[in-house]
Amino acid sequence: MSVNVFALIQNEDFSHAQLHSQLQSYANAYSLGGTGAIVTFTGLVRDFNSQGDIDGIELEHYPGMTDKALMLLVEQAVARFSLTAAGAVHRIGRLYNNEQIVWVGAAAPHRQAAFDAACFLMDMLKQSVPLWKKEFKGERSQWVETKASDDKAALKWMASK
Question: What is the span of the domain harbouring residue 78?
């Protein structure tokens, strides 16, 4: 895969403007003006779960494995949707309500491919990138299990190859 993709696992917060600029720069370098759309998505830490209010989440990962899995997913999106560039950033560590947790971006010749790729990245990320999440409230915490709705979203993409 050429230099038109990036995937980062990090503790630090990220800047939308910086990531958008990086994605656009990669798209322009790769496609020589053939990019007609950029779609990005940012996920935030919710302040609730099915049992009620929470204070935040803590994300753990397997260094090396998680990075590779995220990069592979981004590369798959590029190939599947004929993107001119794509990127993903996922934070780890202790995050509080309303903090940014994940960012994905897709650049494509046409908007539908960019929208579809961003949805693909988010739906498949939960299934194919090894990250473990604990929700906490005060001193109590509990591991979060995979949701049936996340499995269903990923299966939709797997069935439509």
Answer: 5-159
